[in-house]
Amino acid sequence: MGNAGLKQHYETASKTGVLQIADCKLKEIPIDVFSLCDVLRNLDLSKNKLSVLPDDLSKLKHLKQLNLDSNKLQALPESLINLKKLEVLNISNNFVQTLPVCLKNLNNLKQVYASNNKLQAFPKQILGLQSLDVLDLSHNKITEIPYGMSELYVIELNLSQNEISLIGEDLHQAPRLKILRLDENCLSLDEIKPSLLRDSKIHTVSVDGNLFEPKQLASLEGYNEYSERYTAMKKKMF
Predict the structure, then answer these.
(1) What CATH number has the domain bearing residue 198?
(2) 180 lies in a domain?
(3) Phi, psi (degrees; rounded to nearest 5) at 12
(4) Tens digit of pLDDT at every position of the chain (238 positions)
(5) How far apart are CA 95 and CA 216, in angstroms?
(6) In a domain, 172, yes or no
């Protein structure tokens, strides 16, 4: 897309607060984007060729949604710390190996999508974020769910298609967790602790493609309590 086409997008964004410049073959964020820092609420830069994000991103202090899906990013800058109003961050389909420490300060985050990256460890930076509802870390290289999940406030956690073989002892203490997706990992049945089924708020857990058959969950202590929550959830849906 040429400069003329982008100019029209900027003019529209100055009125709506929404800038969509996806699939424009951009290798860097155009400087004109930062002239919209007083109005921009939603920025869609997906399906471009961005490999580095500039520190000027910190100028977009009113941003609520940032979509960086399908670029060539290997890291995110700590300057994101200034995006205090950010609610939705999508960095799926990049090459990111770790999430920035500054995420722990973005208290308005509600949804983080980081699927299909190069993450090797569960990002503890998101622990303590009490507004975070959805965390998608599927299709990465994560090997364990670490201890500390009593500070995980998400409602839905997607860790499918990783390399997880260990689950921390306190996952059942995640105060709001209801949906847990663990498909296609390296889990043995022993890693599904009775406390996870019995004492958590989880009503939906998916474990297809691990080192046991999903139907074997029914043999575990705590399965009856889990089944009751699942049934109650289904009744509310209909």
Answers:
(1) 3.80.10.10
(2) yes
(3) -65, -45
(4) 455 678 899 999 999 999 999 999 999 999 999 999 999 999 999 999 999 999 999 999 999 999 999 999 999 999 999 999 999 999 999 999 999 999 999 999 999 999 999 999 999 999 999 999 999 999 999 999 999 999 999 999 999 999 999 999 999 999 999 999 999 999 999 999 999 999 999 999 999 999 999 999 999 999 999 999 999 999 988 7
(5) 36
(6) yes
Sign, CA dihedral 209-152-42-44, equals: negative
DSSP 2: -
Task: Residue count of the chain, please give it.
Answer: 238
- Please tell me the total count of domains within the chain: 1
Mention every residue, 6+ apart, whose C-beta is less than 8 A from residue 125: 99, 100, 101, 102, 103, 104
Q: CA–CA separation, 210 vs 187, rounded Å?
A: 5
